[in-house]
Amino acid sequence: VVQSTIPTVMYMTGSSFNDADQALCLFGNNAVDATFVSTALVKCESHLPLTGVDDSQVGFGSADDDAVWSRTMVSLSIVPPLTISKVSPKLSVLVGGTTVQITGTGFDGVGGVFCRIGTVSYIEGRILHDKVVECISPSYFESTVDLQIAIHGNVYTNTNTSVVSFVYANGVDVVAVIPSVSPLAGGFTMRAYGLSGGVGEDYKCALSGVLVQGNISSFGEVQCTTPAGVEGFAAVGIGSIIDDPIDQMSMEYVQSPVISSVYPFNGPTSGGSLIRVSGSHLRTSSHLVLDGSESSSHFYSSALFVSELPPSSASVVLDVYAAADGNLVSNILTFTYRSLATLTSFTPDGIATSGGSVVYVTGTNMPNDKSLSCAFGTILVAGQWASSTSVECVSPSRIPGGGVYGDFRVYVDGIVSAEASTIKYATDSEITQILPPSLTSTQLPAEVTIFGSWLKSASCNGTVTAFDSSWASSFACSIDPTAVGYASIGVISRGEKLSVAYVIKETPLLLGVAPPGASVVPGEILSVSGQHLVSQDPSELYCLFDTSYAVSPYVISTALMKCESTSTVLASTRVSILGGDGIYGWSRQSAPVVSSVSPTSSAAIGGTTMTLSGTSMPLNDNSAVCSFGTIAPIAAQSITSTRVKCLSPAGVASNGMRICVSVYTTLSPSLSCVSTHVVERNDVLDAVLPSVVHSSGDTSLSLFWSQQFNASTGCRVSGVQLDPCTVSGSTTMGFVEVYSYHFVSDERVGDPAVFAYHVAPTLSHVTPTVVQSTIP
Predict the structure, then answer these.
(1) How far is CA 80 from CA 105, 125, 130, in A?
(2) pLDDT > 70 in the chain, percent
(3) Position 157 pLDDT exceeds 90
(4) What does the alpha-carbon distance between residue 665 and residue 643 come to, in Å, rounded to a whole number?
(5) How many angstroms separate the CA atoms of 377 and 373, rounded?
(6) Model pTM score
(7) Which has fewest Cβ within 10 Å: 526, 576, 685, 751?
(8) Nearest 5°: CA angle at 17, between 14 and 21?
(9) Spatial CA neighbour of 699 closest among 644, 657, 628, 760
(10) How far apart are CA 375 and CA 315, in angstroms?
């Protein structure tokens, strides 16, 4: 490719170039002299002017008529001369490396384009499109030089349209970039500060190679608007020549801060409270901005910083956001300035040391949010908002050793009210007793009295008595519920409601008494069965004897209780329940007195009829019962006023046994005893020898006892008493019982021994009847 009006040095390559003295180049029909280089290379300059597309050849000889031309030719493309209309930048730092954009014409279809800057030629350019080419400036000394362009092999011309001035100079040293960060979206003002140096035809800011227009705001300061970028650091320079790393600072592209909450979300107009701001992408320079006013802050982490609330002239809702590093701002939330709360009064003036008292507070500017609280000395508790002028707080327990009096204030937005009042800590309010402890439905309406300490007013089944301005130890109120069950009985004290469930009972009903009678002495235990035997207190349920004597019972269940009888001289007692329905006739009789027992001894096997003699033996309803030691009760077999007969049981103690008589039960206090009776162990007939007796003749038997009471040789066999104990033969085979003769009627003699009869043998015939003397 050659330019039509600019001479171009052409290099013809081929073979068999052999005439060094007469080399020629042919461009179309125009021959020009050439320089023979070798048999494969000839150099010549293009013929001017060139138009269209011409063929080129190499020849040797005379250019007029006898030249010998190459058999082959190469076609040339003829293009207009290259022109330059603009160069940017027109300045480079001495070390070079500046990317220079050259705008002009003739760049399309020319192949390679080269730049010459100063004396440095053949700087390869990069064609961006048909009108723009880029070249990288080489290093050079400080000077103003020519910048030219040419097609490969074409010469550089010096026409007004093909050469411009280019300056080598020191660049601006950037010493500071404020702010040093930018949001990813850009769009914020950045100020770059630099020292003296060349900047080219204008002042620009470059961020990682991206040029943006700059404005000089003062000597050494250029302001630029940051473009969008990616997260990380970007190099910053001033002017058109900024590629020298020495001349650059860096700016960080970061994510903008995001705030998710501001707590508290309101505060006093006086300021001073701490605001906790949480979110993400927060930086060490993060601070809170309220309606343009910046606050001092303390950075904790990328998710939290704390700012001090600045004062405000009015109670108002403001936009609030977080800012950092001069040009980073977050999303917007709202914050409310409020006037300080004031404390006017509170009730009650005394609260329990154990805490739990409801304190009613009045004042002004009470907000309906979580920032409202009450201060009991140094202890803060959450307040329950009632209105803008009232709040309720539950008192905490008093710190041990904290004294009787303490300061009380209201807190809002973390700021305490200027006003303070003194509150008194006193003994806990309590209900100690309610009398009567319960009532039956037939006793209503009735008045109950509440006893306790530090009481203000009483409440009976939802009806509250008039409020008493002074503390009291008791209150009385009337109760008249409509149904059986529980009614609420309580007091209101220090704002705290103390209450208990008060029982309204069914009327007790007497159904029966056991045993059916008792002695006239006191202390007899009777079991009372009935219905609705409910007792809230020992003083409200009684057993009545003859409607005159009341005894507190032991209540086992709503259907059973036990009572102790009172003494009487009457033969019958009327038993009833105080406040209940039903009457039971209960027989009474004198307590027995036992003076003797017969016999004075008996066998441990039992079965001996014992007669207890004395006076006042219980005759009514066979109510006399006997006891033998720990074995009882034993029903009497016969009774008179002076004698009771009972059959001794088996298994009693062997000596010193007590034999007693009482009325109905052996637990009765009417019990009367004698202790002169002895119980002896049973004797057992161990054996009779011989144990087998012939069925014929007489046999004397020997008796062997486990314990011999009286020496004797007699016995009783088959109901016949024998002494001595000699038995005759019997034709009845089998066992025969043998008893001691001496102890025939003595119960202490136990089981008999036995022997057996057997038939004696009878010899009827012998075979043989003759035997030899010495032979078996």
Answers:
(1) 9, 19, 13
(2) 84
(3) no
(4) 18
(5) 12
(6) 0.39
(7) 751
(8) 140
(9) 760
(10) 24
